[in-house]
Structure formats: structure tokens, C-alpha cells
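Late entry, written up from scratch paper. The run itself happened at the end of the previous shift, but nothing got recorded in the book at the time, so transcribing now.
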Amino acid sequence: MKTTLLLSGDEAIARGAYEAGLKSAAAYPGTPSTEILEYLAAFPEVDAKWSVNEKTAYEVALGASIAGVRSMYSSKHVGLNVAMDPLMTSAYTGVNGGFVVVVADDPQMASSQNEQDTRLIAKFSKLPMLEPASPREAYEMAKIAFDISEKFDAPVIIRITTRVAHTKEDVEIGERNEVPDKPFVPNAAKYVMVPGFAYKKHIALEAKLLEMARYSDESPLNSIEMNGKSIGIIADGVSYLYAKEAFPNASILKIGFAYPFPDEKIKKFAKEVKDLYVIEELEPFIEEHVKQLGIPVKAKDISYRIGELNPTLVKEIIENKKKIEKPSTARKPVLCPGCPHRAVFYALKKLKAIVSGDIGCYTLGALKPLETLHTTVCMGASVTMFESMSKILGHNKVVGIIGDSTFVHSGIEGLVDAAYNGAKGLIIILDNATTAMTGSQPNPSTGVNAKGEKTKKLILEDICKASGADIVETIDAFADNLQDKIKELMNKDALSVLIVRYPCRIIYKQKDPVPVFESSNCKKCGACLTVDCPAIHKDENGNIVLEEYLCVGCNVCVSACKFGALKRKE
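Output as recorded:
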């Protein structure tokens, strides 16, 4: 009897990889890819690990492949940027056990700082790439990918997007296939990429690409669905489903083996239809290649290179319309009630600090009414940008903000660089004892691994001192002297690190006494609203309302009130 599970795309990839005999997996959490490793961590047969960053994860997974087992790396698109160094060279070394590289792109930037298109990286790295359109296809392609990897001695990229990663579908699952480990045979010419060996490997890689292109042409993952001949659509990934819904009677070339391109199938399909369109999200990746083949194709307007597609937008593309951006109706994201980050940002706002920020929940400190975070570029950039900004603008004015997980990811080397180059001023590490933004995953400073087992705990104070910080201090996020301590360290003629420590409210659910609200003392000045807490707001009559069911008693609003309307309840 077959078993059917309702799986997201992330879970389906993990399940398919597990059934294909996966033994080693490494990742760094990042929406929309996080759930892949979380799902794998439940299987005792899989050595599933959270790594300190994506470069480390890729190298750990590649090492497992070279040692002879089937392995997997997963990250979001910007995470793959961090792993580009080993990715590019692994195309030369090839693999031993099958190696699958899963990357989750985020069109529409649901939780990302850019909309890059990883399909371009497949071409850049000369690696084969598969694109599932649904969770069911993700499950099947995860299994196929290991076979392709071993057949062509190459890492295989599976590229999904947010819609595929987080959509759920019934998937008929099977049993695990135990694949024998491959023996490791020392081979410097294959695995040691010094120039002499690498040059020959590049020649071999170009020949391999031609073989993979022929395989792509023959692969059932690229299929022609002939209907009417007036409109022909080439589509990949989830765009295929949008195109099929918008034009059920059109002929479609469905691209699942996305790189190398199936040139002969494209040429054959183009001859069968009158007007040819390419429906794809973000970059004109397929469109430009079709044009290079000398095939006339109707191009989408440049406005459709931004954001996700949907069936309505597909119709507009076929009708040669420009995309009209509509105002967002989404509510403003906000820090949770009692979030320890709020107290820090409220203190920095009163100190009028210039804050270089990082990737984490604390990016919400940039929004009104807090407006106390002034840069966010990528993981770890808060510390390195602080180094230069503090020298130019004054170390008593600039503060770097970074979370505990992000500090371990790529903040440590920034601190070493700042110390080495004589930077002065204050870096704040917001230690909330988890990787909160991506769903509360552990990291090396929590002392727990991906499987929930206790492991060695990285002591942030020790690593900061060893990295060259002159002063390292720790303080509770809700300490009465938090603002004074920040001001003191900003003005020190030294490189200081202040670890502001308090667990994330999602994992630490203790509720402290709710403040006493005496409405008779309230002047309706709105000072309490500047802390941006969901538990306190104005009603339709302009009166301040404290929602006790939301409040967890952090008392940041109490410190903002100057008229005694809000008082700490002992």
C-alpha cells in the first residue's frame, strides 16, 4: 500500500533525497530553504548539520561526497553567494558520491534583500540545473539528481522558488534506497586544483557540458505538450503552472532540466507554433538563449523582470502589456511584544546613534517609528561597515549591530579586521539564544546541534576577546542602565563589544507582570508608541490602549512614559 504525505517543496526535496540514499547534509538556515535540513534532521540515517555559514556548509557537503557518500547542500539564493568559491571549483573536481546543491530563490523578496536569479549561476559555474514546478516534482527531481550527479561526475543544482518551497501537495512516498558508499581513491589530478590540474579539468568540463546538453534534449524532464499551434510557450519551474492555467489550450515546452538547454527540443518546438513566448520569472535566461539560437521569440517587457509571476501577469505578457505596480496592502512587520531588540533600538534612538545593521529580526529597527538602523547589506556587513563608518563619522556616533547567529556566520572575521586596523567604538551583539528570523534554529553559541543534541558551546565573550576587542561586556537587554552603558562604551577610546543578552520571546515564553496603566495620568502624547510594540496602540478616539493579552511585561514602554501613566508592576 502506497503512503501519501502532504509535503511542502522543501520537505519533498528532503524526502526524495532521503529515499535516494542521502547520508550527509549541511546547510545554514535562510528562508525559503530552511525546512529542508530541519526535515532531514529527523532521520537517523542522515548526518544533518547546521554549519556556521554557507561556504562552510558547501565544503562540508562536498567533502562528504568526495569521501564516497551521497550528500546535499541547501541554502537560499543569497546564501549561495557565500558559497560561490567552493561551488565554482567543485565543477572542476566533480564528485564521488552524488552531490546535490539545492538553492531557493525568493522572487518578490518575501524575506530577502535582493531578487537574484540563480539560473545565471548554473551557466556561470557550468553545472547542470533542475527546476521543479511543484512539491511532487521536487520529490522526484531530488531522487533523479543524485543519479545525474554520479553519471556526469558533477554537482547538480536544484533551483526552487518561494512558491515551490512553501506550497504543499500530496506526495506519494516510497522506501529508502540504501546506496553503497563509493571507495575514496586518492587522485590529485581530480581533487587538487592547482593550475596545471585545473586547466585540464576545465577542458574536460567543457566536453562534459556537451554531453549534458545531449542528455537534456533526451530527458523527459523537458517535455513538449502540443495543443493549438497559434501560441507556443516555453516555461520553467512554477512559471509552467501559471502559463498552463492562463492558456490551457496553448502548446507548451516544459523545461525541468533547465541547464544545459535542450536546444534540439527548443528548435523542434519553435517550428510547430506560430508565435513563440517565454514565460519565466526574473531574468530573461531562457529568452536570451532562444534568441541566440536564431529563433524569433516575443520578449516580455522589462517590467516583468521584477517580482513573481501569476496567471494574470502571464496573460499581460502575452498581450504585450507593461506591468503596473500596485501599492502593497501588507501590514507593517514589527518586532514581537517583549522582543529584547526593542530595548536596544529605543536606547540607540535616544542617543541619536548612527547604526550599521545586519541580517536578522533587528532589521525591523529601520522602520518607523524606531528608525534606528541605517544600513543593511548582507550577513556580517554591520561589523565591517562599522569599521570604516566609525573612522569617518566618529566612533562616538556610530554603532554596529549584529545578532549572535550572524556574528558566528561572518561577524567574527569582521571584528578581527576592525581590531587589526585600529577601529574604535562600539559593536553590539544581540544574543537572543537562537537564529530567530528563520524559525529559531540553534547555532554554535547555543550549544545544541541540528538534531537537538547537546554539543560544544561557543562562548561569545571569549571569541570577542580573542578577536582583538579591547573591552567585552555583557548586559541584560532590559537592564535599567542599558542606555547609560551603551553611551559609556560609545565614548571609550577603544574597540568595545557589548553583548546584550536575553532569550527570544518565541523560545522563552515567560510572561512578567504587565505594567499598570493609569489612564488619568495619560496625556496622549504618544511617547509610548515610539517603542513600536504591538501591545500598545491608540484607539479610534485617540486614547492609548494597553492590550494585556499581548503584553509580556518587558516595561520598555514604561521607560518611555514621562507622566506616570505607565508604571512597573512589582
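The two ends are 61 Å apart (CA to CA).
(Scratch paper discarded after transcription.)
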